[in-house]
Design a protein that fits this description.
Molybdenum Cofactor Biosythetic Enzyme, Chain A; globular; alpha/beta; binds adenosine-5'-diphosphate
Length: 434
């Protein structure tokens, strides 16, 4: 039985998957849970666990309570290092939630006001770098990027020392790039010097993958790390060096896939429109869900399932509400955008459940919100992260409360992700991975 080495708390669902994906690619078998599992005795077989919360923009007190519950559960699983994951654009307000959650986790791990951790949202591969404590998005400061106008967490200051100091009770310091570039021992020395000066939280510069790896090495043994998903690439090497994590293990291997195959698509983004078209042009079976028919009271769910049942044995089927923007606007003008979205999400998630009842065990879902609705309807509790189909979209093996003992393979593709042939490619990859 493997005890997890790393226990992560992510402040949103897609951020959790992003982190899990990085950990798998860096060699750790990773399981993502949806919220804190209610069964305290349930044990997870993995090198890393990522608990996905939805705490980014809720009240700071609630975010703190949820994060502490996640911490306690991860500790009960045996996690040796805790990783608090937030967005690479540091999405937060002066009230939180990054500062209050960091304070609460440090208090719990070290005692009130004690302890030391880092802040580092850098992920150079995704155009997020930190230099002299300032966060850059591509070539511009965070405060000059689109994040300036974010509806919930407008980021109008790129100086992370200042931004973090407004949110935390602890003193904030900086590990500048001139130190980071000298490597792990210099970084560790600077951590010690800052601690001696009473600093509890250090913003760390990083502009390249080499920086992330050096920082990762300096973080060995630190009880709490707070970061975006980038820092994760430097942590597995610490346990490989100590012999606790196998080198070159196939961290992305999943149980063998079985059953029928289906795609459920509620995304109307350009990429998804092209993927739906490509699938249909290959002559594969596809059923269009009409939001106006749902609103008119037709039993679209039953229609889709009756259509799909005799086709499943022949290969993947597609059920889609995906439409071009003019069609979406026409529907929204009649039903209202929110109601249209909700009707479609409900119908597609009931269709997904119906498909699994018909024997589908390999399911691709397109659309971020749609994925959330489907995951909830399927009663997903845990997902083991497997091979990547396209950047940011891995196959996962899911355990569900509704089908205990069954393995269901699910790929959740949000909006503009994936190549045009994504739907067929996904199933081919799963076959090849077996
Ligand atoms: P994406 O990841 O591409 O943004 P989402 O699933 O997050 O996709 O969002 C798409 C939203 O559009 C969902 O709420 C979905 O229910 C809704 N939707 C899907 N098809 C239609 C349609 N034909 N008309 C109106 N709304 C739709």
């Amino acid at each position: 039985m493997t005890r997890p080495l790393l226990g992560c708390i992510a402040d949103d669902f897609t951020g959790a998957t992003d982190l899990a994906n990085n950990l798998v690619r860096a060699g750790m078998r990773t399981v993502q849970t949806i919220g804190v599992p209610d069964d305290a005795t349930a044990s997870v077989e993995a090198d890393a666990i990522v608990v996905a919360l939805k705490s980014r923009t809720i009240a700071p007190a609630d975010a703190t309570v949820q994060s502490l519950a996640a911490l306690r559960w991860l500790q009960s699983q045996g996690a040796r290092q805790i990783y608090f994951k937030y967005c690479s654009t540091f999405d937060s307000t002066p009230q939180g939630n990054i500062g209050p959650v960091t304070d609460a986790l440090l208090d719990a791990l070290h005692g009130p006001g004690q302890g030391f951790t880092i802040v580092c949202p850098a992920f150079p591969e995704n155009q997020r770098t930190v230099f002299k404590g300032h966060l850059f998005v591509g070539d511009v400061l965070l405060s000059d990027s689109g994040m300036r106008q974010h509806p919930l967490t407008p980021m109008t200051d790129a100086n992370l020392v200042r931004v973090m100091q407004a949110q935390t009770r602890r003193k904030v310091g900086l590990v500048a790039h001139e130190v980071v570039s000298r490597g792990a021992p210099a970084i560790a020395q600077r951590f010690a010097a800052l601690r001696a000066q009473g600093v509890g939280v250090a913003v760390v510069d990083a502009v390249s993958n080499a920086d992330l790896l050096a920082i990762g090495s300096a973080l060995a043994g630190m009880p709490l790390v707070t970061a975006g998903s980038g820092i994760a690439i430097g942590l597995p090497a610490n346990w490989q060096a100590s012999g606790e994590l196998a080198m070159g293990a196939h961290a992305d291997s999943l149980p063998q896939a079985s059953g029928w195959r289906a795609v459920v698509s509620g995304s109307c983004s350009q990429a998804t429109n092209a993927q739906v078209l490509h699938f249909r042009q290959q002559g594969r079976p596809a059923f269009a869900v009409d939001p106006l028919a749902i609103a008119a009271g037709e039993d679209v769910v039953a229609q889709a399932l009756t259509w799909a049942a005799p086709l499943l044995a022949q290969g993947p089927v597609l059920v889609y509400a995906t439409a071009e923007s003019s069609a979406v606007q026409a529907v929204q003008a009649k039903l209202g955008a929110e109601r249209a979205g909700e009707l479609v999400e409900q119908a597609l998630s009931r269709i997904a459940v119906g498909l699994v009842n018909l024997g589908v065990r390999q399911l691709v879902v397109a659309g971020g919100e749609t994925s959330g609705a489907v995951v909830q309807a399927l009663g997903v509790r845990q997902m083991a992260i497997g091979p990547q189909i396209d950047p940011g979209v891995p196959w996962t093996a899911v355990q569900s409360a509704t089908w205990p003992g069954e393995t269901l393979h699910v790929a959740l593709k949000s909006g503009n992700f994936g190549s045009t042939d994504f739907f067929s490619k996904a199933f081919t990859l799963l076959e090849a991975a077996a």
